[in-house]
Amino acid sequence: LSPLTSPPASLNSPAQKLIFNRVNGKRPQVLPQQVSAPEECYTLAHEENVRFIYEAWQQVEQQLDGSRSGESACGPVQYVEKTPNPGLKNFVPIDLEEWWAQQFLAKIENCS
């Protein structure tokens, strides 16, 4: 076994500051800083609730699959309207991932 060695002296010294000098004498353009959303802090109770809901939903999905295949006569029942609402005849659900992608690309195009 070899004895523990101390880290090199360069790791113990404080980090040097980088200094940038202006080449053309102009002041750098100051861009307004974006206000970032406060970082989300998940508590133990929050994680426990999410885990409980996730596990319960997985159980419901398994029971639904079992009732579709005829394994069980009782269990969860999926709701389906018998007479569709005429106001929703032309309803098209949104693809949220596609919408976010379009928003992201539009933001990039506006910045350049």
Description:
By secondary structure, the chain is mostly helical. The chain has three helices and no strands. It has helices at 9-12, 44-68, 96-111. Residues 1-11 have low confidence and may be disordered.
Which characteristics define this entry?
cytoplasm, 3 helices, disordered N terminus, mainly alpha, 112 residues
Could you give a quick summary of the protein structure above?
Helix content is 40%, strand content 0%. The chain has 112 residues and is mostly helical. It starts with 8 loop residues before the first helix and ends with a helix.
Using the CA coordinates, give the radius of gyration.
Answer: 29 Å
- Biggest beta sheet attributes: none
Shape: elongated
Overall pLDDT level:
75
Helix/strand structural class: mainly alpha
Beta-strand level of the residues, as a percent range?
under 5%
Quaternary structure: single chain
Please work out how many helical segments DSSP would assign.
Answer: 3
**How many beta strands in the DSSP annotation?**
0
Which residues form runs of ≥5 with pLDDT under 50? 1-11
**What is the distance, rounded to the nearest whole angstrom, between the alpha carbons of the first and last residues?**
58 Å
H/E element sequence: HHH
Summarize the amount of helix as a percent range: 40-55%
